Amino acid sequence: MARRYDSRTTIFSPEGRLYQIEYAMEAISHAGSVLGVLSKDGIVLAAEKKVTGKLLDLSGSNQGGYGGSGEKIFMLNSNVVAGVAGITADANSLVNYARQAAQRHLFTYNEDIPVEVLAQRLCDLKQGYTQYGGLRPFGVSLLYAGYDPHYNFQLYHSDPSGNYSGWKATCVGANSGTAQSLLKQEYKDDITMDGAIDLVLRVMSKTMDSTTLGSEKLEFATLTLDPETKQPKARIYRPAEIDALLQKQGLGKKEEDTEMKS
Q: Which CATH architecture has domain 14-249?
């Protein structure tokens, strides 16, 4: 019976379900996981990269820019960083839309766009793709890590249906159920930024498909306040910085490195 109702985005099944939305969310559940943790003084985002290989040219990310291959974590505005899980091509389209929305808000009101407003703008677009015929929904979920002066640091999640919600810590993508259960056990409301970084890396090491953590498999970002200007300061780590952070946490590839040298 499902075959009669899953060919179009806009037709409800007798149970009141939109199968195309469920298929999109199923695609996301197989994508590289993205994890976010909210702390008292900042937000940490980490993401598992799926496009890897020895022949991948990362020279540009090593020399400048924000690092990584730009597959999973993006700057949307000076006060908002996003992690994406799902079809990266769909994510690129939404990221461009979000950046334009943020700049329009800045031009109109002379202030950075609030995180929830930006999430609402993207969710309005996503919801439209579930309502009008001839279009498929975006196959991507986003985690928004942002800051505004009224509500401080905030972490939001949105899915292909246009729903969004605020979280203290969450995960989307592959193995998200395992990551959520680990976060429930170990997350504390008074967690510091260092504690959040440690928690994120430990959870990623247990839930990623690969046996070892490294910059070729991981993207990492933080959002904090600059101690002098009191303005939000986003930092997307370069590959060398990710490797150094993993070594500091005791999660780097020590054994493999020694074997390669020998």
A: 4-Layer Sandwich (3.60)
